[in-house]
Model the fold of this input.
Amino acid sequence: MKDFDFNQYYQNHEVDFAWLEKPSQHEFRWRCADGSWRKSKRRVSSIETFRKSISQDNPSDIYFSTSSWLNPVDLPRLSDEAKPHPILLNHLIVFDIDFAPLSLENLEQARTTTLKLQNWIEKNYDYELISISFSGSKGFHLFYHDLDRTLFSIENAREREHAVKAARNKLLQEVLLAGFKVDPRITADTRRIIRLPGSIHGKTGLLCHRISLERLNKSVDSWIDQVPSFFGQLEMPKIATAQNKTAVKKYLKEKEEQIDQHTYMMEVSNHLPGTKDRSALIFWTPYSWGTGAKCFERLNTLIEKENLDCCAIFSDGERVLFICPESITRAKVVKILSELGIEKLSQNLKQREHYWVRISGIMDDDGIWHNEPKFISIINNNNSTSIFSKPHLSLLTKLGIPIDNSQHDKLAGNSEPSIRMVVRD
Done:
């Protein structure tokens, strides 16, 4: 990679942005071979202007903005109050699907996930599919056009961008809750950039390029050898070996020790929206409980003692996630948590009248997902007197748990739970 002349390549080969409605409204950025970042100081409207923009650099990785702007050059930061807020003209709906580490097995998993997501989007949303990309590494990108232009007619530029971000975040939550492991940093961020089709992936040397839906339907093994490779033949392992997995775990541990790293996850509030003091009982068991028989004995004891019903059990391999979608008084949940020794949640509920609990896997800065909660079982007591939380029954349904809501006559709260995407240091 160090010896590869990227600039020379791009002066003789065309990147692919003809599928963009107006490339001149997008921001273009690139990472140089020496690790530094640059951005275009001019509008990129053609291959010629693109080549002029990069001519003084050696761009190993090239990206473009998922948003289009009235003026995409020198965009002010979102937090910059001194400059006029930039005018957002459009925001592509983009999904980035990666499975690490790089292997044929993981790439095939990324392909099938991308195909399933495309089918799910087509069934549930009125979006226009405009492009599919193979990233040149561990996955794929889906690009859609939002046919509903209502939000882009909001006159105030700042309010417009915030409204679009909120709508995209709601979409992201729905996609993640449906079980699709997309990169949560991409979809909802109006200031995000993504790899440009027709550019070389700076780590693998493979060409990031657009593919047809027909190709997406075919196994990776049948076409991966046809992808241009510019750093010599890439030795891609067939499976993510035990050695690779150990390396990933070591890498994640090292990441945890670095203060400038972040993790991304979804959380749900235990409060029942639409009620004053009603809560659902949701918590992760302490690490000291383990994930074996003793842990489940404690949970069964809790269920019997409190006469709880419809309790969903998940595990991420290290701890157990317990979700009881009953409508319970706040005071009772505080008491239960305190008796279980889960004092932090108990205190949060006492002081803030609700708390947040992680309900997704955890993604690191490199797009690697880990600690994904896997469904174990539902424990029913068939308690006819129970009043259930409508939003948390909806949550279980979104998580793919087979809940027969017709059996729950007594419901409290609004239909949707309070869910947020969080970034943690």
